[in-house]
Design brief:
This protein is α+β, with helices and mostly antiparallel strands. Helices cover 24% and strands 34% of the residues. It has helices at 16-23, 43-54, 94-102, 116-124, 202-211, 260-268, 283-292, 308-312, 319-325, 369-383; strands spanning 30-39, 57-62, 71-78, 81-88, 105-113, 130-139, 142-150, 156-165, 174-175, 187-196, 216-221, 232-239, 246-253, 272-280, 328-332, 335-341, 352-359. The strands form two sheets. It has a nine-stranded mixed sheet. The N and C termini lie far apart (43 Å).
Length: 386
Amino acid sequence: MITENLSNVKNFEYSETQKIFSEAKDFLPINGTDYVELYVGNAKQAAHYYKTALGFQDLAYAGLETGVRDRTSYVLQQGKIRLVLTTPLDPDSEISKHLIKHGDGVKVIALWVNDAYDAHHQTVSRGATSYMDPETIESKDGIIRQSGIRTYGDTVHIFIERKNYNGIFLPGYEKLETEYHPISTGLKYIDHMVGNVEMGSMNKWSSFYEEIMGFANLVTFDDKDISTKYTALMSKVMTNGNGYIKFPINEPAIGKKKSQVEEYLDFYKGAGCQHIAVATDDIVFTISEMRKRGVEFLYVPGTYYDSVHNRVGIIEEDLTELKKWGIMVDRDEEGYLLQIFTKPVEDRPTLFFEIIQRKGARSFGKGNFQALFESIEAEQARRGTL
């Protein structure tokens, strides 16, 4: 069973952010992210990549051998993060159609709740579109209750209730055992997940999370906060009441050239999850391991580090080591954070990962936006999409 641990968060008893959390209406209590399901073209090969490159471990499997006839799914775990990688076996299935349109990407953001039936009632009665009617699945390992709603684009939330279930993952899945066990890269839990939506849709979807799911607006960034001389975007970060679930919602802003959000929307063919931010307690170890395994990260110019101490102040880490691995630093009133972003993890320039270590900070690296966006623009220029 996955839960978030407040020991991961320093200085939790602070005033301003705690006030924002308290503004969230907890008619839909959420205990944490249960799993994230990606539809992929080849789940077997994708599982090998996520194990090798990012350090995930085998957990469960569903497919022809377990009686599932239309798809194959590999479930991987690292820390409290569970990834489900699903490939269709029927070329005419809805999963196949999703892949043709979007390519590899996030389909399901599953949320662990106390009552999946009530979660469906609370959200649908407030205007959500149902994706999965409430259902109870019984097996020798107990009972799973689940339901689901639609959110931006073709992305969905599935509500999972596990209190009477003791199985490895979900009914229909068997324990996955292989002889390949690369060591963990130190990833602990999902910090936040970012959704990219069409221009003019950010307020619609932030209102969706506020009115339908009871979230509150943690912070807003406008095009003055997130811009370069070429591109800009706007973002609202939505959080649930306990702060375990944070969903930044991005939309493009008018700029001289095509922004990263517009590029995403063009290649994903609509709104979707742009990146998954995963937390670590030792970002230097995590990034050094990932780089050894072939993970590609955005380039951070060496001049970025010339002003870090003036901007951020004293930090525990060796700045030379951070510069070596391209790790960025930012500070807010609660502390500081360390972060770095991968390049897209598939051929379409869509989904990527953020690796983050929080040393008290609860923000999202506003001080790094300029350097980050210039790095993204450099990649866009190489692809001919800027």
